[in-house]
Amino acid sequence: MTDLNPLLARLAAAGTRITAIERPTDLAMLKASLARIRGVNANHVVAMDAFGTGLVLPEKQGPAQLIDLTGMARIIDLDADYALTLVEPGVTFRQLGAEITKRLLPLSIDATVHPDVSVAAATLSRQFGYTPYGDRVLMQCGAEVVLPGGDVVRLGMGAVPKSRTWQMFKHNFGPYLDGLFTQSDMGVVSQLGLWLSPLPPELRALRIELDDSAAADQLIDALRPLRTANVIAHNIALTSAAFDRASFGVRGSDKMLLTTALTGLPKTLAVYWPMIAKIIAETPGARMLPDDNAPEWTARKHLLAGQVLPGAPPPVPFIDFQAPASSGILSRAHEVLGATAVEYLLTGRTLMARVLSPEDGPGLVAAAATAGFGIVSQSLEFESAARTVRSKSALAQVHKRLRDALYA
């Protein structure tokens, strides 16, 4: 049985005291758990792993019942031909990676730093990873959801009787509803489909040391055209020494590091690699580091290659912000976060920057909002403060009306 005591302590600190725990192991038990909780008109929260990844706090602070989904841990489908999987919410990256290895499948996973995080939770909380499949929500395809009233809904092609394309095609007729169940408590996801990546013909990881924020600004601007053109298909991570030490336990350099990778046919990489090397050489304060076996670099290469880390680093509480990555973005972020350990994950067509911070302090939320950062996802410790920032928008009011309708 998963040890949830650390999570219970964090929930209590965030104003949610757990009075009972439901531990369903299948869909019927999950429906029964929701019915019991609804029958006593109690708040509930849903945990898919021991860390509370993607957990959404109740609207009102106070007592609540916890639905522990770590016992729903079946890999329902794993198809190498179509590079897809269908999993229950308790399946971890470690478990999925082990199954792929056991079956010798030519597939990779966009894994989190900690291997025991739930695959579904990392996706539903809209976390980003490091590979070309790092936008996990974009790679989600199909889901089964239990609504607050007990109805079971299959999203996408799962709604079509006898459909054989549930994990192959994301959309069905009518409105696209999958997003309603990400970063929300509008339903409990009991199955989640996900696209996986075939192993690339070749992968070359690169690590760039940066003297200061000015060097990082200039390099990001230079790499943006290659990222938006998908020459660099991997996400780009810019990390501080403090963040790497917190995540991997060690870091040889105290300077910022930018890491990413190129994938493709060997002849293609033979053209692209010199282009990247030239950009780095022409950026003052930037230098490419050798591909050595430094512990934090070995771990990062595992993630860039779509491999699950073999070890389990200590979990780091974090908060995510994002803002367009443009000249000066790093300086503004530094002003907001001060000396906090940060990681910028540059992803997507506009090179959005995600900041991961292991420092607690609700003031960071307000400071980031004032500086123009939008809150993407946050730890339990920050959720109340984050709600205050986002609750005033018209979009937040639409979310509230939808939630109220589902709970009616």
From TrEMBL:
Domain FAD-binding PCMH-type: 13-199
Record keyword Signal present: no
GO molecular function: FAD binding
Gene3D superfamilies from the UniProt entry: 3.30.465.10
Phosphoprotein in keyword set: no
One Pfam assignment: FAD_binding_4
Keywords: FAD, Flavoprotein
The protein's name in its UniProt record: FAD linked oxidase-like protein
